[in-house]
């Protein structure tokens, strides 16, 4: 019984370590996520067709340092999602603010929360 507990604990901790950024990543902490939906998805700043609520996309502030097409990994409470920058967020006032599609947001937290802080994020190079 005790051995099973120790093995289970080791597996859980190891899976968290694997989900965290590697040394060749640009890592940030204290990110914020919100979500946008409906008509707000129309005419993305990066061009192309309007994404859907199910697409794994995000909008970022102009001062974020992220460019259209960048793939950003987001982590919160043991959950990870990878999103692609498809839009700019005019109302996001902090550079570490990611406005996600509903589908992407729901991979990290319940939609009822609306805003989640303390997001770890990284972009692999």
UniProtKB/TrEMBL annotation:
Q: Which CDD domains match?
A: DPBB_RlpA_EXP_N-like
Kindly indicate whether the keyword Signal belongs to this entry: yes
For this UniProt record, the keywords arranged alphabetically read as follows: Signal
Instruction: Specify the domain of life of the species encoding this protein.
Output: Eukaryota
Q: Does the keyword Signal apply?
A: yes
| InterPro entries in alphabetical order | Expansin_CellWall (IPR051477), RlpA-like_DPBB (IPR009009), RlpA-like_sf (IPR036908)
RlpA-like protein double-psi beta-barrel domain residues are 76-117
Give the range the annotation lists for the signal sequence: 1-19
Record's protein name: RlpA-like protein double-psi beta-barrel domain-containing protein
* Species of the source: Malassezia cuniculi
């Amino acid at each position: 019984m005790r051995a099973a507990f120790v093995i289970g604990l080791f597996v859980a901790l190891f899976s968290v370590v694997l989900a965290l950024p590697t040394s060749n990543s640009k890592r940030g902490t204290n990110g914020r996520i919100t979500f946008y939906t409906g008509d707000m998805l129309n005419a993305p700043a990066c061009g192309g067709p309007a994404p859907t609520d199910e697409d794994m996309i995000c909008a970022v502030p102009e001062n974020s340092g992220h460019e259209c097409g960048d793939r950003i990994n987001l982590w919160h409470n043991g959950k990870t999602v990878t999103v692609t920058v498809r839009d700019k967020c005019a109302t996001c006032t902090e550079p570490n603010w990611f406005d996600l599609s509903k589908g992407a947001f729901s991979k990290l937290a319940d939609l009822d929360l609306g805003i989640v802080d303390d997001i770890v994020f990284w972009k692999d190079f």
